[in-house]
Amino acid sequence: MTNDKGILILNIYYMLSYAFQELRKNNYDDIDKEKFEQILDLFAEILFRGISAQLKQGLFREYKTLHDTLPVLKGKLDLGATIRNRIQRKGTLSCEYDELTENNIFNQILKGTILRLLHSPDLQHKRKVQLRSIVPFFSDIADVDLNNIRWKTLQFQRNNQSYRMLMNLCYFIVDATLMTTERGVHRMPTFSDEHMNKLFERFVLNYYRREYPEYRPNADEIKWNVAEEESCGLEYLPGMHSDITLHHDSSTLIIDTKYYGRMMQRSQYEKRTFHSANLYQIFSYVKNCDTMQSGQVSGLLLYAQVGEESMPILDAKIGGNRIMVRSLDLNQRFDNIRSQLNGVIQEVFE
Predict the structure, then answer these.
(1) What are 138-149's pLDDT values in tens digits?
(2) Are strands 251-258 and 297-305 parallel, antiparallel or unpaired?
């Protein structure tokens, strides 16, 4: 992240609101009227409002298997442990039972993220006061080491769908406030290209899903265009999945989004060129998707531009298919971002 001020922070909120539909609810509808000096302040405000709304519904509870020694039977009897109690002349039963509890990994992550924000020197006092007001609701929730969370293993179902956006938000906050190994101080808030790339990809996909549903925007699997009866070893081919695929009549557009610190690469002789691997990737997607070699499948590499000077535009017919490279400046008014995304539809399909 090269600029955390003003308009970029507001645009990140708009990106989040497309990426996560929860942010379109009334509880969040006036966030864009506030001014945030740091990106952490925006995330802390969203987290506070999201948790406050969740507290009104009740924190997510799930069943956990507990083991305890009790005077009366509860659940299933642990016979071996009970016999040992009898030998030791203890008149108790060892029981194994399920109990519905709020003390689960989801609420532990919420509590841990709140506490981490409260220790951040970069967070405004106003946000800390808000967060402190909800800490007592987590008094029965165990502490957890946020640096050891296996985020990809979190499973969502009908009863905890409202946590999906909150967990993604915690993921960003934890990434921004990792402790350094020296002197135990927080590093300055920043976000890795990997995480911002995920947000940018999800934003573009959900923007088209919301604004252009008739183009059936989706992240499609692209199959290799091979003659199976004349081939072997096909099971070892890597999978191909587009970030966004749009369809209109007989035309298809495959979009691959990229968020890098630098949008261009430099060759041995300091010449600026497009990233070769990215071009090979989008070209492969397009050619394998265009099984009839009709030329009606196009490809677009869409780079997020944050602070860096704009990159050249590529628009070329390569091997009979249209391949484009564009950049989307995130440090401009969102109306202009919207206009550029709409312009892609008009340019390709209309």
Answers:
(1) 999 999 999 899
(2) parallel
User: Which of these ranges, 103-117, 121-135, 233-247, 254-268, has the smallest mean pLDDT?
Assistant: 254-268
Q: What are phi and psi of 254, to 5 degrees?
A: -105, 125
Tokens 């952490």 appear where? 40
pLDDT of residue 50: 94
Average pLDDT over all residues of the chain: 86
DSSP calls for 113-169: HHHHHHT-TTS-HHHHHHHHHHGGGGTTSPP--GGG--GGG----GGGTTHHHHHHH
Gap between the Cα atoms of 72 and 61, Å rounded: 25
Q: What is the DSSP letter of 343?
A: H
Residues 316, 302: Cα–Cα separation, whole Å? 15
94 forms beta bridges with: 69
Select from 53, 68, 189, 50 the least CA-distant residue to 117.
189
Question: What count of residues does the chain have?
Answer: 350
**Using CA atoms, how far apart are residues 187 and 276, in angstroms rounded to an integer?**
33
Helices (H) and strands (E) in the chain — how many of each?
A: 9, 12
Residue type, 164: R
Strand positions, DSSP E, the chain: 62-70, 76-77, 93-101, 221-222, 240-241, 244-248, 251-258, 264-266, 272-274, 297-305, 314-318, 321-329
Residue type, 22: E
Condensed to tens digits (0 to 9), the pLDDT of residues 62-95 reads 888 778 788 887 767 787 787 887 777 787 888 8
Compute the CA torsion angle 18, 198, 262, 192 (nearest 10 deg). 110
Looking at 23-27, 46-50, 124-128, 162-166, which range is the least confident one?
23-27
Return the CATH class of domain 195-349: alpha beta
Sequence-distant (6+) residues with CB within 8 A of 140 are: 102, 103
The single-letter code of the amino acid at 256 is: D
**Residue whose entry in the numeric block shows the structure tokens 């709304």:** 53
- The tokens for 324 are 């484009």
Show me where the domains of the chain are located: 6-60+103-191, 65-99, 195-349
